[in-house]
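Duplicate of #3305? Posting structure anyway:
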């Protein structure tokens, strides 16, 4: 038995599809299937039920897969210990980011990360919050960058920055002529929001509740860029986090981004990592660089 076949088993348990599991592990489907068959022969028990339509785990397969996750997490911990003694800012790290942060923060920090720590290889993964937390819990990711607070005490938390919201309005909207707005300007207005699963949706709903606004129940966007398109087409208003707002704007633009008067609605962005991680020094160093870079924007 080797660690790679345990990785294959976990992939099958989570994907329930041989082709998807093989692609996830960067091997061919026959290789993954063959290695899994050898594991079953070695253990003397059927782990996976196979038919033409689906893949199902046996009770034994589910139990072994759960133990495999723990083994793989322990192995990753051993690797982290060795890396922390050699050079905390070298080797590989897997970072998870939520979709409303990743496309806007990464261009601002990745060049500086590569220049500051050339021996550090950062793998980037984008998922919604619930998926990120589960992957961090299973040691599939090393740290997360996401909106706080997160309702769990099992991870260590580092503050990064506070990100204000701006109101995105069509250029022809009467509010567009105002240099600044108040929460009262949203009273009885209808807002375009993201679909369920995005933490930004919940934060925007909080702002709507405080301002007396409601959501447009007929449309929910899958991304900030979809929301931006809808506003540009004159379909309504939305809240846009500051990093997602274009740095250069002209009077010809179809959207106006209006700042709020104080106290400005905002969200907290931070990092999470497993308590006791031996890469904590690396996470604190990355925290410092991000705070410095975002402060310069």
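Output from current build:
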């Amino acid at each position: 038995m080797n660690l790679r076949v345990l990785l294959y088993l976990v992939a099958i348990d989570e994907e329930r599809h041989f082709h998807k599991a093989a692609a996830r592990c960067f091997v061919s489907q026959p290789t993954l299937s063959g290695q899994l068959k050898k594991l079953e022969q070695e253990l003397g028990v059927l782990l996976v039920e196979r038919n033409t339509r689906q893949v199902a785990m046996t009770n034994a397969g589910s139990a072994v897969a759960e133990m495999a996750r723990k083994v793989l997490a322990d192995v990753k911990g051993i690797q982290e210990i060795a890396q922390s003694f050699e050079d905390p800012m070298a080797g590989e790290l897997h970072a998870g980011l939520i979709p409303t942060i990743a496309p806007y923060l990464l261009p601002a920090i990745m060049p500086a990360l590569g220049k500051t720590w050339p021996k550090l290889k950062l793998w980037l993964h984008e998922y919604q919050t619930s998926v990120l937390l589960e992957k961090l819990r299973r040691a599939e990711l090393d740290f997360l960058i996401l909106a706080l607070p997160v309702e769990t005490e099992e991870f260590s938390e580092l503050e990064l920055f506070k990100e204000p919201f701006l109101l995105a309005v069509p250029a022809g909207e009467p509010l567009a002529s105002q240099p600044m707005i108040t929460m009262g300007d949203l009273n009885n207005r209808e807002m375009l929001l993201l679909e369920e699963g995005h933490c930004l949706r919940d934060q925007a709903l909080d702002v709507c509740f405080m301002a007396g606004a409601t959501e447009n129940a007929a449309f929910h966007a899958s991304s900030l860029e979809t929301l931006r398109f809808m506003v540009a087409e004159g379909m309504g208003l939305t809240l846009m986090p500051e990093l997602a707002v274009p740095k250069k704007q002209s009077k010809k633009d179809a959207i106006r981004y209006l700042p709020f008067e104080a106290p400005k609605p905002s969200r907290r962005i931070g990092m999470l990592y497993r308590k006791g991680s031996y890469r904590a020094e690396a996470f604190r160093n990355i925290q410092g660089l991000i705070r410095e870079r975002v402060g310069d924007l």
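Confirmed duplicate; merging threads. The chain has a mean pLDDT of 90. The CA atoms of residues 94 and 140 lie 8 Å apart.
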